[in-house]
Design goal:
The complex is a heterodimer of chains A (522) and B (160).
Chain A lengths: L1 H20 L3 E13 L14 E13 L2 E10 L13 E11 L3 E8 L2 E2 L5 E2 L2 E2 L4 E2 L2 E8 L5 E12 L2 E2 L3 E10 L12 E12 L12 E12 L3 E10 L14 E12 L2 E11 L42 E13 L7 E13 L8 E17 L4 E12 L1 H5 L6 E15 L2 E11 L7 E10 L3 E10 L5 E12 L2 E10 L2 E5 L2 E5 L2 E13 L2
Antiparallel strand pairs in A: 1-2, 1-31, 2-3, 3-4, 4-5, 5-10, 6-7, 8-9, 10-11, 11-12, 11-13, 13-14, 14-15, 15-16, 16-17, 17-18, 18-19, 19-20, 20-21, 21-22, 22-23, 23-24, 24-25, 25-26, 26-27, 27-28, 28-31, 29-30
Chain B lengths: L1 H16 L9 E4 L4 E3 H4 L6 E7 L4 H20 L2 E7 L9 H7 L6 E3 L4 H5 L7 E6 L2 E7 L5 H10 L2
Parallel strand pairs in B: 3-4, 4-5
Antiparallel strand pairs in B: 1-2, 1-5, 3-6, 6-7
Classes of the chains: A mainly beta (522), B alpha/beta (160).
């Protein structure tokens, strides 16, 4: 009995000991992107007056059981050239407190949220592009019964270092029908969702019927089994005259359909989307990347080679109809030397009739057919061969009056691992076109010494019309969750991947230094 | 007394072995849309869990996952561990993830972090980013991938 008591006492004190030593999880990051600009008339580079741009982000998050809290401090000294805003300020801009229990979570402060695919509502952060429309307010999520999940949000959108002068409110409910069945693991999962979002911005003009509050509603359905899935989402937005739709008084509509099948080592995905008058913002006179309420991405294949990044589609929120298909296939039984094929086809056109999302127009906006063959030859050598054929309506995508562009691109990307931790990568690319600036050629050579060092030299060369080289040289040092890199050269805007990291970079001639640190307590 | 010590020692490990994880309680989704709590997913006991953050548009991420995937069975025979991959594709490209994964013949669990909630909670700046979690704690992390990085990863795993 005495022993039992001793043991019980020891267990209790041990439990208390583990409780007190369990200090929660601290996570933090520092992300710095600094450029020292050089005058370069050849590419019309934006040259800030003091020739320096520096974006810095410090973020800390602490989690202890169901509680979490965090802050984000941002410092623009000043913001880098080509950023959507030009400020020279620092501020503690995001802070939140969150409590999560089994059936409820409450977050106050700044939060990011998404309803469905984001066609009706999404708040997110993209530091490279300069979007942060976090909502400052309250986000409550409840799961009263296992098959129902409800989100309720209300707050003001972040607008650079300020707030949009409007209130965004929303509610979203998801019903999981598979949780209603008695079966432990039903083969098919059926889910329906409904969303409502409103934006109120005070109107002081003379029009008595002017909609100060814009309302939008959405419904979605998804059915997914082991090897196939189908998804459908429809959004309707009320009257929202703004600078973006030339004060149009019609409703906005969007329809998104997605289907995918998979069998063995074969996968097929098909997405169709039609949108009309769906530009939805926190402020009526906001443009470009400022205070978006919803998210309308270009549904095309994202590219990350120098030449495939020259003609990139941008979704037309005022009206477009189209879709894309993806096929992925692994050939051959030899698991050690697989051949992997990826095919993507995307095509977008105008709407024939304004506000009719089922009418296909005569004006083509974008078309892209890409075929990629990835082959592992042995443990040392692997290669990627890619071909693209694209059509690009520059007048629509970039605005202005230009001729349309048809181009073909070939990319060869080879990696040779000559020792356990040493490798070099070599890229050769060519873009063939008789339009716009004519042909482009590109080459990249990269030397990697895992796990820490990587060096590269690259050149993108437009030899037809502008006769311009975009040379770059750089290197990086990586240790655990931290990475430091330095590069010097000319850069076109676009995704740029070197040393295993992809970033969006604006056009400039500069020395670029990046430092990213990720810290997670052990 | 010796018995008591052994019992106490066992209880000590038992209590520690089941210490609650404090990793972020963020929900991510399976490929068919079911929500899973990351803290519960990673509250593994003594088997190391590799968590790889990737996206369909990130070439180095795919190279890293395929390198690990090609050696998976071989390495797991030496030291047991689990591997999961969390896609941070947003809705621009998240719909293609299931067919992408199937068509590449990957045979490890894939999860979706469509609005980067988990990536943000763990303060991951860039991808690829890999974590090793054991007993609910992050014991190793690495950002970026170049061929040969997997050697360091497996060195850490084999010491577990």
């Amino acid at each position: 009995m005495k022993n039992c008591l001793i043991i019980l006492y020891c267990v209790m004190s041990l439990s208390a000991f583990t409780q007190t030593t369990d200090r929660g999880h601290l996570s933090g990051s520092f992300d710095s992107y600094t450029q020292f600009y050089q005058k370069d008339e050849k590419i019309n580079a934006i040259l800030p007056q003091d020739k320096v741009g520096s974006n810095n982000f410090l973020k800390l998050d602490y989690t202890y059981k169901g509680f979490s809290a965090g802050v984000q401090f941002e410092s623009y000294l000043p913001s880098i050239a080509g950023y959507p805003f030009n400020i020279n300020e620092s501020k503690l801009i995001n802070r939140y407190f969150k409590y999560t229990a089994k059936k409820i979570s409450v977050q106050v402060g700044d939060f990011y949220e998404q309803f469905g695919s984001g066609l009706i509502y999404r708040s997110w952060e993209n530091r490279q592009i300069g979007i942060n429309n976090a909502l400052e307010g309250i986000n409550v999520q409840v799961t009263p019964v296992s098959f129902l999940h409800v989100k309720i949000i209300s707050g003001k959108q972040r607008k650079i270092f300020d707030r949009a002068n409007s209130v965004v409110r929303g509610a979203d409910a998801t019903i999981d029908f598979s949780k209603l069945s008695k079966k432990e693991n039903p083969k098919a999962r059926i889910e329906a969702g409904f969303s409502y979002v409103s934006r109120y911005q005070q109107y002081t003009g003379p029009d008595v019927d002017f909609p100060a509050t814009v309302r939008a509603a959405a419904a979605r359905l998804s059915i997914s089994g082991a090897n196939a899935s189908f998804g459908l989402e429809y959004v309707q937005k009320g009257k929202d005259p703004s600078i973006n739709n030339n004060q149009d008084l019609g409703n906005g509509r969007a329809l998104l359909v997605n289907g995918s099948v998979a069998a063995g080592k074969f996968g097929l995905n098909l997405t169709l989307r039609s949108i009309s008058n769906m530009d939805f913002r926190g402020e009526r006179d906001a443009i470009a990347t400022s205070v978006p309420v919803n998210f309308i991405p270009a549904l095309t294949r994202p590219h990350d080679y120098l030449t495939t990044n020259i003609y990139v589609y941008n979704a037309q929120a005022q009206g477009e109809i189209g879709g894309q298909a993806d096929i992925y296939y692994t050939i051959g039984k030899n698991v050690k030397k697989p051949s992997r094929i990826g095919i993507n086809f995307s095509h977008y056109r105008s709407l024939q009739t304004k506000n009719n999302i089922f009418s296909i127009g005569d004006n083509a906006y974008f078309r892209d057919l890409s075929i990629e063959w990835k082959k592992k030859w042995d443990n040392k050598l692997s290669s990627v061969l890619a071909y693209h054929n694209l059509f690009y309506n520059k007048s629509v995508v970039e605005g202005g009056i230009y001729d349309n562009i048809t181009a073909n691109i070939v990319v060869l990307n080879t990696t040779y691992k000559y020792a356990a931790k040493k490798s070099f990568r070599f890229e050769l690319q060519h873009l063939f076109t008789q339009d716009d600036n004519g042909n482009w050629a590109a080459a990249v050579t990269e030397f990697n010494f895992a796990p820490s060092f990587s060096f590269y030299v690259s050149d993108l060369y437009n030899y037809d019309v502008t006769n311009t080289h975009y040379p770059n040289i750089g290197g990086s040092f990586t240790k655990n969750g931290s990475r430091f890199s330095v590069a010097y050269g000319r850069q076109r805007a676009g995704l740029f991947c070197v040393g295993g990291i992809c970033r969006f970079v604006p056009a400039a001639t500069a020395i670029t230094a990046t430092l990213t640190i990720t810290f997670n307590s052990k | 007394m010796r018995k008591l010590c052994i019992i106490l020692l066992c209880l000590f490990y038992y209590t520690f072995g089941f210490a609650q994880t404090d990793l972020p309680q963020v929900k991510i989704k399976t490929l068919n849309g079911a929500e899973v709590g990351f803290a519960q997913l990673s509250a593994n006991k003594d088997t190391a869990l590799i968590v790889s953050f990737w996206a369909t548009w990130c070439i180095p991420c795919i190279t890293e996952l395929e390198t690990i995937n090609d050696q998976l069975q071989e390495r797991q025979l030496q030291t047991p561990f689990k591997l999961i991959a969390v896609s941070v594709d947003d809705t621009r490209s998240s719909a293609r993830v299931p067919s992408f994964v199937k068509g590449r013949g990957w045979n490890f669990p894939i999860y979706l972090d469509t609005n980067s909630d988990l990536k943000r909670a763990l303060n991951i700046n860039d991808i690829p980013h890999i974590l090793i979690i054991k007993n609910g704690k992050i014991i190793y992390q690495h950002t970026g991938y170049v061929p040969g990085n997997e050697e360091e990863l497996f060195e850490v795993i084999s010491k577990q």
